[in-house]
Design a protein that fits this description.
This protein is α/β, with parallel strands linked by helices. It is built from 16 helices and 13 strands. It folds into two domains: 253 residues, Glycogen Phosphorylase B (Rossmann fold), CATH 3.40.50; 155 residues, Glycogen Phosphorylase B (Rossmann fold). The radius of gyration is 24 Å and the shape is globular.
Length: 424
């Protein structure tokens, strides 16, 4: 039987669970907002672009679309954390720029959010703690989550009042659910703001995704649309392609593969089992160069033992380098299963996937190996030019399944956004 926890906090339990905080036996009813009263004179702009989570390469998902809409005469706003983070050179001059740090200082957001937390969240959380046996560490984590939620809510409330957009476009709200709370407050009083999110990476069948709070989701292709249909929520989705990959293709172009030596890039995030398999194979690979690219969230310390042993040279490890520059300098990309493998295939690089027990078979799309011997034989096989061309041709079909038609992705996304604010 579900426990009747306070509405103020239970709508975010699913996000807490992603951070390892499980709340047993609860249910959340879908909120229905009154959208019949529309204050059309309230709107000052068409679109607001924001990062629910910022990473430099995510700019290539949002900025091209924002620029195209601005060129078309749409009123567009773009928000960054601060001036230092902002990419002014890439943004069209007609786009209005905002900064959360400026808003926080001007409107005393920290003070407002603390008062909001103490009055509207803390009492309900105390009721939650009386039902569950949380230790002090767990209580602190939950309190910090809702305190940050209150802060993000007030930041977005002020930003929405400053920009007054018909629609917002972002990169997930899993770390910033307060943004969703702010949008919902306007919806409740009859001022509809369409909340859209863009797919930023590969997602699977784990009954969770990064599209919390979205009214519409822009997806790369049919592969992920089919997955989304199996997940809870039944979110409306629109296939547009991937503007970021489109930008990278326009910038880098697809280059012919190199034979002497063959350049291999290994993408490392967490799996030392896969890395050990590759290093074993590497001993027997001839006429190759190998570089290692770390996931942005992984420290070089993760490979310290390999460096000490001498199996990996620190000079061959890329950490802060742009992933696409590294991929462009390769012929074969391998390593941990990641979005970058699919992007490498789109950039015309051969991909060899190392299989492990935890990998979902639906994502093993390319040449797949499960032993050092298989890796060696696969590399030897594709070293022949005819085989390379054959494998690359097969990858083209996979790339289309994942990314739809890459060329035109930016235009399709902009077209879809304009259609949403015209028909809603």
């Amino acid at each position: 039987m579900a426990i009747n926890y306070p509405d103020t906090i239970k709508k975010y339990f699913s996000i807490l669970e992603r951070w390892g905080i499980t709340i047993p036996r609860y249910s959340v009813e879908k909120e229905i907002y009154n959208k019949t009263i529309i204050y059309s004179e309230w709107y000052r702009s068409d679109f607001l672009f924001y990062f629910g989570y910022y990473r430099k390469d995510y700019e290539d998902l949002l900025i091209p679309v924002a620029n195209l809409l601005a060129v078309r005469g749409r009123k567009v706003s773009f928000v960054y954390k601060d001036v230092k983070q902002a990419n002014h050179k890439s943004l069209n001059q007609a786009i209005d720029k905002f900064y959360f740090d400026d808003i926080s200082n001007k409107y005393k957001i920290l003070s407002k959010s603390k008062i909001d937390f103490l009055n509207n969240y803390q009492p309900h959380l105390n009721k939650l703690y009386s039902n569950l046996k949380f230790n002090m560490s767990m209580k602190k984590r939950v309190n910090n989550f809702y305190l940050n939620l209150a802060k993000d809510k007030h930041l977005m409330l002020h930003l929405l009042q400053l920009t007054r957009p018909k629609a917002i476009i972002g990169i997930h709200n899993i770390l910033t659910p307060g943004y969703v709370e702010a949008v919902n407050k306007f919806n409740k009083v009859g001022i509809p703001i369409i909340n859209t999110l863009m797919q930023h990476g590969v997602f699977g069948f784990e009954k969770k995704h990064d599209f919390f709070g979205a009214d519409y989701v822009f997806l790369w292709g049919k592969f992920h649309q089919d997955i989304l249909k199996t997940l809870p929520g039944q979110l409306p989705s629109i296939i547009t392609g991937n503007p970021k990959v489109e930008q990278k293709l326009n910038f880098y172009k697809i280059q012919p593969l190199q034979n002497n030596p063959v350049r291999i890039v290994y993408l490392f995030s967490t799996s030392k089992k896969k890395l050990d398999l590759f290093l074993q194979a590497k001993k027997y690979l001839k006429n190759v160069t190998v570089k290692f690219k770390l996931h942005p969230g992984i420290s070089i310390e993760a490979l310290k033992s390999y460096i000490i042993q001498g199996s990996i040279s620190s000079n061959d490890i890329y950490h802060q380098n742009d992933i696409y520059t590294v991929i462009q300098d390769s012929d074969i990309v391998t390593g941990d299963l990641s979005t970058s493998q699919f992007e490498a295939a789109a950039l015309g690089k051969l991909v060899i996937q190392i299989k492990s027990d935890g990998d979902h078979p639906a994502f093993l799309k390319f040449l797949t190996v499960s032993s050092a011997e298989e890796f060696i034989s696969t590399c030897n096989n594709i070293s022949q030019l005819g085989n390379k061309k054959e494998y690359l041709k097969k990858q083209e079909y996979i790339v289309k399944e994942i990314f739809h038609d890459i060329h035109g992705s930016t235009q399709r996304t902009a077209d879809s956004l304009e259609k949403l604010v015209t028909t809603e």
